[in-house]
Specification:
28% of the residues lie in helices and 35% in strands. By secondary structure, the chain is of the alpha+beta class. It has one domain: 2-Layer Sandwich (hypothetical protein PF0899 fold), CATH 3.30.2320.80. The protein is elongated. The structure holds zinc ion.
Length: 113
């Protein structure tokens, strides 16, 4: 599962942070997930619990922050909001859009002790 490897990546980041910042336990992880990324939230939550078992983040809570998709429309010359990666411009219907945001998945914040 794709979400499983994402969580393994997250755990690696947490472990690296733990050794540089000297914390022993992760209490909450805030994850920013763009609406245009192909991450399934339910699968991600499930994988998170599985992967974090027996780690420094074993009881950590996962908080998801959704980031709306955004793009630049060449026709309108302005930023527009989109829901899917290959959406057309909601204003003029053009498909000449350059995705500018909403594809990311990153750790926004950690609560540790
Ligand atoms: Zn447009």
């Amino acid at each position: 599962m794709h979400e499983m490897s994402l969580c393994e990546g997250i755990l690696q980041v947490l472990e690296t942070e733990a050794s540089t910042q000297k914390f022993k336990k992760v209490k909450t992880v805030w994850l920013e997930i763009g609406e245009l990324s192909s991450v399934e939230i339910e699968a991600l939550k499930f994988s998170f619990d599985v992967v974090m078992k027996n780690s420094i983040a074993k009881d950590a809570k996962l908080e998801i922050i959704r980031v709306a998709g955004s793009a630049w429309c060449m026709q309108c010359s302005e930023p527009v909001k989109i829901k899917k990666r290959f959406d057309e411009c909601p204003q003029c219907g053009s498909s000449q859009l350059q995705v500018t945001g909403g594809t990311e998945m990153k750790i926004k914040e950690l609560e540790v002790e």
